[in-house]
Design a protein that fits this description.
The strands form two sheets. A five-stranded mixed beta sheet has the order 1-3-8-9-10, with no helix packed on it. It is globular, with a radius of gyration of 16 Å. The chain has four helices and ten strands, in the order αβββββααβαββββ. By secondary structure, it is α+β, with helices and mostly antiparallel strands. The chain has a single domain, classed as 2-Layer Sandwich (60s Ribosomal Protein L30, Chain: A).
Amino acid sequence: MPSATAENLAVRQASPRSRRVVGIADMVVSASPSEVIVTYALGSCLGVCVFDPWARVGGMLHLMLPQGSLSPEKAQQNPLIFADTGVPQLFLASYALGAKKERMVVVVAGGASFNMNEESDLAIGQRNVAMLRKVLWKNGVMLKKHELGGTEPRNMTLDVGSGEVSVGFGGQLRVLLEGSVT
């Protein structure tokens, strides 16, 4: 990995930060160290972050539902709605900017349940998490960190310059993945 010098560290800290918002059923991928990617209100939805620390490529997907077979028409129109079609799109877009699968760090948040009956077929958050794990496992990708379940919506942030991933909920901010400036 390239090493950080005092000079390039100062440039990173002094450069203006731009914030890119990921909407529902949307994704953002970036190789710009001055960008911060954020998504809001992850309830049963999942925020999936990927980061390649060597290439300094990061991305975030805000997916809603577990699998495209629930609505093939919607999956064709916007594959980012679903875990099984959106996650591959996130990885492919990251590869296009220079990321490599074997270096990718994956962090996820969300998957809350607002139903009184957690065992219900309507427990979309749990089904989203199960499908995400299946997609990652089938592709030989490990989940590094996660903040899943519960009953509160979360906000998620990825600092593309450092790789730091944080999650805010219940008035608190928690760093899930420490960033680095190397």
